[in-house]
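Tutorial, part two.
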Amino acid sequence: MHMIVAYDIADPKRLNKVARVIKDYGLRVQKSIFEVAVNNALFDEMKSRIEKIIEPLEDGVKYFPLCEKCYGTIEIIGQGILIDPDEEYYIL
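Running the prediction step on this input gives:
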């Protein structure tokens, strides 16, 4: 299943941990938004890992499933994929 995962995490350390977990399952498309393609078992695994990190009274994570028809109609204006700010870059 295709899914959009969006989050708002209050603490920078937890935010980075959550981002690293979601990165294991998909691609960052904006600073706090990822596109993931997972089956039910991987979704449950990802969700469980995230639930161990967040503080439910301070943080929020939302999962938006996309049907195949909806996924096929995604439109992009401007940059399609955010360049990951956590990625290492080399200047030559």
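Residues 2-71 form a domain with the Alpha-Beta Plaits fold (CATH 3.30.70.240). In part three we will examine how such features are distributed along the chain.
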